[in-house]
Amino acid sequence: MTLTIGLFGTGRLGSAIRAAAALRDDVEVTWSVGRGTSEGAPGRLAGLPPVEVAIDVSHADTVAQRLSWARTTGTALVIGTTGWDPHLVDEAACGEAPVLIAPNFALGVALVRRLAVVLGGYAATAPVPVDLAISETHHRGKADSPSGTALSLREALATGAGREATAIQTTSLRVGSVIGDHEVLVASELETISVRHVAHDRSLFAHGALAAARWLATRPAGLHTLDDLAEDALDSLLRPSSRHPAPSVHHPDTLPAPSTPPKEGLR
User: Fold this and answer.
1) How far is residue 98's CA from residue 73's CA, in Å, rounded to a whole number?
2) Tell me, what DSSP letter sits at residue 261?
3) Is the pTM of this model over 0.70?
4) Which residues are designated catalytic?
5) Using CA atoms in the order 134, 138, 143, 148, what is the torsion angle rounded to 10 degrees?
6) Distance of alpha carbon 206 from its chain centroid, rounded?
7) Which of 23, 40, 158, 161 ranks highest by number of CB atoms within 10 Å?
């Protein structure tokens, strides 16, 4: 069955979502609204044709308006915009419509976020001081800094390490036409571990946005995240099988000494 989608945002990502939808027969973009179009004006949103799910990839300034529209119409709303006030979500998650927040639509980023929690827990067991850091690079036109993805990864790393997120070093670069480059770094005098995700094509996020929309269409009203969508796809990868239980996590300096095998007697 074809899913009808409304699109808030006609920029680079919005255009990529339209192009990705055109290649599929299970979704259809019924309308798209840009910041400069008359349909996007607050008084005109009520006149938009009904759709099953709307995707907002426009601008942080318009998120409150889109949330109000979603609650009024009962339309499921995927928010891919970053840099807006998260307290708006408290008002949105009141039961009128399903709302999904995804600062990054790449499933690979959701995997890195899970690994960041693990790395944070690993750092917490270290016998020496460990530095934790998040770095991210985007194109020169990206407004928010750090990116929403970087903040999400920082929160995950902090959760695993039992530290305050604000205590984790976070660096941002806005250069050239970089689509998205995020790295989680754990470093000490003993070792350095890094996990990096680099997006090579904007269609990665476009297909992820469409997957998020199709998933949200079957969810109840309330607040959801991309982690909820990724749970079934990713958690089985990180869950040890019953035949091979995961060993306890220790740093090299905290491992128990190996037992010495008994010497073989002389014959």
Assistant:
1) 11
2) P
3) yes
4) 138, 142
5) -40
6) 13
7) 161
pLDDT tens for the chain, residues 1 to 267 = 899 999 999 998 999 999 999 999 999 999 999 875 545 555 578 789 999 999 999 988 889 899 989 999 999 999 998 788 877 876 555 678 999 998 889 999 999 999 999 999 999 999 999 999 999 999 999 988 999 899 999 999 999 999 999 999 999 999 999 999 999 999 999 999 999 999 999 999 999 999 999 999 999 999 998 888 888 767 777 776 645 555 455 554 544 444 545 444 444
**In contact, 52 and 219? CB cutoff 8 Å:** no
Kindly state the tokens that stand for 115.
Answer: 């690994």
Positive/negative CA dihedral, 154, 158, 161, 166: positive
